[in-house]
Amino acid sequence: MAEITAALVKELREITGAGMMACKKALTETAGDMDKAVEYLREQGLAGAEKKAGRIAAEGVSFTKISDDGKTGVVVEVNAETDFVAKNEKFQNFVKEVAAQALKTSATDIDSFLQEKWDLDPSKTVSEQLSATISVIGENMNIRRFTKITEENGFVQDYIHSGGRIGVLLQVKSTVVNDAIKDMAKNLAMQIAALNPKYITRAEVDQEYLKNEKEILLAAAKNEKPNAPEKVLLGMVEGRLNKELQEVCLVDQVYVRAEDGKQKVGQYLESVAKAQNAEISLVRFVRYETGEGLEKKNEDFAAEVAAQIK
Q: Domain Translation elongation factor EFTs/EF1B dimerisation: where (predicted)?
């Protein structure tokens, strides 16, 4: 058996483009035989994955999965380079497999998650399975993030909007769990997807933010009405701050499906709780919008074709 040196690992990586750890494993499995190591990586679908790693992966989907008992839910975001691949069946199936694993994982961060054993093939890590899928699909991909929520005294509701453009989890604590309350939770998860609140109630809003916002609004009010009494200025500030909070706090938002167009989410929640004789509280929500904060690839189709021709 040839000694597995750093130089040997480097050479294999340059030949295949596979990751450092994958190359080391391949050489170990093949007793240092370079040709067999290349074959091993090809069989594992790992050769070529690293060469795609520099490409921007800002498309993709956010996907949710709920446990059979409804008490645990997970939302994951998996990215690809193009919307075309994001709609590909192989990509979609891989995302579902990632979500299924994330639902059971004990990992608390993405790095730990990527290093754990892949449930469907324990000979690989999640990261290695990702590399294998990249090689099959032919585009760079990235398991960007996941969040898992558990509620023992109630349930977790999910919602996926527009084929995975937005994924939402809503943690609901309730003394009663039935279809009416689950329908209410689904409606509110849809509301979160549509109107993108930042908080559930005003109590969650950062006090430093409120203080800073009041100072800004007060300065603006003084510029608008320099001779107005302080009481008038403070009234302007409170009115404008209240309007802002109605937009960012879920329970203060107008319920999008309200028949009168006026009912607030908090009022809708209270009406359902009363009708079902239940005590209900919204504990937490998570909203993933696919690609948010990522640099987007900005090429038109004509330029892409021209680039390929060259």
A: 73-292
pLDDT tens readout for residues 3-35 = 888 888 888 877 776 777 888 888 999 998 888
6-48 CATH fold = Helicase, Ruva Protein; domain 3 (1.10.8)
Measured CA distances, 150 to 103, 164, 185 (Å):
10, 22, 15
- Closest by alpha carbon to 175, among 276, 66, 283? 276
Residue 68 CA to its chain's centroid (Å):
21
Q: Do domains 6-48 and 56-150 have the same CATH topology?
A: no
Lookup: tokens for 132: 């294998």
- What is the reported pTM? 0.76
Give domain limits for the chain: 6-48, 56-150
- Alpha carbon dihedral 11, 16, 22, 27, in 10-degree steps, equals -50
Number of Cβ within a 10 Å radius of residue 279 = 12
Residue 115 in tokens: 């290093």
The CA dihedral of 272, 275, 277, 283, to the nearest 10 degrees, is 0
**CB contact at 8 A, 65 and 74:** yes
The CATH architecture annotation of domain 56-150 reads 2-Layer Sandwich (3.30)
Q: Which helix (H) or strand (E) holds 166?
A: strand 166-174
CB 151 within 8 A of CB 172: yes
